[in-house]
């Protein structure tokens, strides 16, 4: 830990006088807490700047132009109003303004993630197309998996972002370089969850730098960081800008306003109250402190007037940049004319293989997941062994009631494994998925990778269940064909349940909601399976619902595979024939009929999962606040 004496107090660039005038700014009241990163690896503000360089130094940054942007958001009305300004290549632009002023919406619009309702955003003179490797976006929430070591996490991120055909050595070299440039080399082996907030934020920036972007957009990168760490991050971004990258960020931290080349200050209501050099901010409003700027801008917005001299007036922004197209700039067409930036995506098969490997690594790194995966089959097998007596399938002395229940609980066990394994797979990583989708991830390989990773685990659990029940004489001494049939029925039941779990996981917005789905999804599967109330005894409505229950088809396929109808009809127990009457032709069809239906359900659920995820990813890179 660095001593207080060794800690640098962040200093501010010239022009920050109005910030220093702030009555209670932390910079006025003594040295901030020590930051090992700052003390160890960051130069003093007056010393040499940090050795930041993207793996491929951009020839020049992106020129971004916002022209008369108006943005409406459903439920919030007009969020941006007639916003115009320029970000020149290699500039660091800071967007400020009170809470709810529209900073995030503006950032997303500038990045091309939201289409403007009116006006236009131009990237190098054309409307932005699909984001590619030349684009970096760091949302407020962390967009890296937390369970793997940082270096490995970035290697996987690089595999999805770097051009197809990039060798493993080049990927590793790129990761080493960005870690070094962001002062994170010494944390390469640390799991992401163990990094500090500032280190995690830098790790997210590192993932974006892997492709050497020409523009980097960051939503409140310094929020939650102590002043020293925040200042150091801003210096890092400043260095990137000096290397040529255009950087646009939003902030609530007053000191950040003076570390950029340009401030865009939004008033409540989403109008530009000021845009220009940071040093002229306070003077433009005739006040001494930035806090006063916030106050004046809010009051101005309330009274609906122009807030101060030097601020936005009719079509002209403070520093004289006109909002009309410059003479050299083509007029912006209102519709069409979208010229996507060139984009090379990693192929679907490679994405699937990389995602499957990453999911497996994540699973194995999470002790809790491994414990649940291994523990739940063992627990269920143990409960079965205690619950049922041996020999229920003995033709000489069968116990027909128990045979039906054993089949049902095998079906339900397979369903339960699949559902619980699937439920937390997607909702826990939605921000990561959205960001990677922007970087070129396809949803098809993503969903397929979940199935590929989990299905062998489920098949193992199902095989264990059947093997132990047979060893304990809870299943009949039948041939391999019977057990192959039981195994196929169980695995398909698990696969359909896994797909249902993935669908539920994709549909909810938080892991807590996914947990609530568990009983909701399990209850009807028990009640309408046809095991407790045989299908012929259900009401018409009940029978219709039972058609949609995968558990019904698994129960019938298992019963058919083990020959329940013949056992009940030909066995010596007098309870068999009445049961057969009760269950009707539930087990009369071949097991393959149930397999086809289960496979159909699995495909249907996967297809809907795919559609839900495509919609969510298109909906925005940041968390959807409408709760969709
Ligand atoms: N998807 C959405 N659904 C509903 N309202 C939204 C959505 N996105 C933005 N808004 C609304 O638009 C307004 C601007 O939101 P935005 O997040 O851009 O503000 P901000 O200036 O970034 O705020 P903060 O500084 O608090 O993060 C807010 O009133 C917000 O509630």
Automatic annotation (TrEMBL):
InterPro entries: AAA+_ATPase (IPR003593), ABC2_TM (IPR013525), ABC_transporter-like_ATP-bd (IPR003439), ABC_transporter-like_CS (IPR017871), ABCG_transporters (IPR050352), P-loop_NTPase (IPR027417)
Chief localisation class: membrane
Membrane-spanning ranges: 368-392, 404-424, 451-472, 484-504, 516-535, 595-614
Compartments, record wording: Membrane
Residue span of region Disordered: 18-58
Domain ABC transporter: 64-294
GO molecular function: ABC-type transporter activity; ATP binding; ATP hydrolysis activity
GO cellular component annotations of the record: membrane
Pfam families linked: ABC2_membrane (PF01061), ABC_tran (PF00005)
Membrane topology according to the record: Multi-pass membrane protein
Keywords: ATP-binding, Membrane, Nucleotide-binding, Transmembrane, Transmembrane helix, Transport
SMART domains xrefs: AAA (SM00382)
Protein name per the record: ABC transporter domain-containing protein
Source organism per UniProt: Streptomyces aurantiacus
Lineage: Bacteria, Bacillati, Actinomycetota, Actinomycetes, Kitasatosporales
């Amino acid at each position: 830990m660095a001593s207080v004496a060794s800690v640098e107090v962040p200093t501010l660039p010239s022009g920050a006088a109005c910030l220093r005038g702030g009555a209670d700014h932390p910079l006025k009241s003594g040295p901030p807490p020590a930051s090992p990163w700052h003390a160890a690896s960051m130069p003093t503000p007056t010393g040499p700047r940090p050795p930041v360089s993207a793996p491929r130094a951009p020839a020049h940054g992106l020129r971004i132009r916002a022209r008369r942007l108006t943005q409406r958001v459903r439920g919030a009305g007009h969020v941006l109003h007639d916003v115009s300004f320029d970000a020149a290549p290699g500039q660091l632009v800071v967007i400020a303004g009170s809470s709810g002023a529209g900073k995030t919406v503006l950032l997303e619009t500038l990045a091309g993630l939201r289409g403007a309702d009116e006006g236009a955003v131009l990237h190098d003179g054309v409307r932005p197309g699909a984001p590619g490797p030349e684009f970096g976006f760091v949302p407020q929430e962390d967009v890296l998996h937390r369970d793997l070591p940082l270096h490995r996490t970035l290697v996987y991120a690089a595999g999805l972002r770097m051009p197809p055909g990039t060798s493993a050595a080049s990927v590793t070299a790129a990761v080493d370089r960005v870690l070094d440039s962001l002062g994170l080399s010494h944390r390469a082996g640390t799991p992401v969850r163990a990094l500090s907030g500032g280190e995690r934020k830098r790790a997210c920036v590192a993932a974006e730098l892997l492709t050497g972007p020409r523009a980097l957009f960051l939503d409140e990168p310094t929020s939650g960081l102590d002043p020293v760490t925040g200042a150091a991050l801003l210096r890092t971004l400043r260095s990137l800008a000096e290397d040529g990258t255009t950087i646009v960020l939003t902030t609530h931290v007053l000191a950040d306003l003076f570390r950029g080349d340009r401030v865009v200050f939004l008033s409540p209501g989403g109008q530009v109250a000021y845009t220009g050099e940071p040093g002229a901010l306070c003077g433009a409003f005739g006040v001494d402190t930035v806090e006063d700027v916030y106050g004046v801008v809010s009051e101005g917005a309330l009274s609906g007037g122009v807030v101060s001299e030097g601020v936005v007036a009719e079509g002209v922004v403070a520093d004289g940049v006109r909002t009309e197209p410059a003479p050299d700039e083509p007029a912006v067409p209102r519709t069409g004319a979208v010229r996507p930036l060139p984009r090379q995506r990693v192929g679907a098969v490679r994405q699937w293989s990389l995602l499957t490997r990453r999911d497996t690594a994540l699973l194995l790194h999470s002790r809790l997941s491994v414990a649940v995966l291994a523990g739940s089959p063992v627990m269920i097998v143990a409960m079965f062994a205690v619950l049922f007596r041996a020999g229920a399938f003995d033709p000489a002395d069968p116990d027909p009631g128990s045979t039906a229940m054993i089949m049902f609980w095998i079906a339900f066990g397979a369903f339960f494994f699949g559902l619980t394994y699937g439920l937390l797979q997607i909702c826990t990583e939605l921000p990561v998925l959205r960001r990677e989708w922007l970087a070129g991830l396809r949803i098809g390989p993503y969903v397929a990778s979940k199935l590929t990773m989990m299905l062998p685990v489920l098949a193992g659990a199902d095989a264990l269940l059947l093997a132990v029940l047979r060893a304990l004489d809870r299943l009949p001494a039948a041939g391999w064909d019977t057990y192959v049939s039981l195994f196929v029925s169980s695995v398909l039941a698990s696969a359909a349940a896994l797909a249902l779990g993935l669908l539920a996981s994709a549909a909810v917005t938080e892991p807590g909601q996914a947990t609530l789905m568990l009983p909701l999804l399990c209850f009807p599967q028990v009640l309408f399976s046809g095991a407790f109330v045989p299908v012929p005894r259900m009401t018409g409505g009940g029978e219709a619902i039972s058609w949609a229950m995968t558990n019904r088809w698994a129960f019938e396929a298992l019963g058919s595979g083990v020959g329940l109808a013949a056992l009940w009809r030909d066995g010596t127990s007098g309870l068999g024939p009445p049961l057969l009457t009760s269950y009707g032709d539930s087990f009369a069809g071949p097991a393959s009929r149930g397999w086809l239906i289960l496979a159909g359900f699995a495909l249907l659920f996967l297809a809907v999962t795919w559609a839900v995820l495509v919609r969510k990813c298109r909906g925005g890179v940041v968390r959807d606040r409408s709760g969709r």
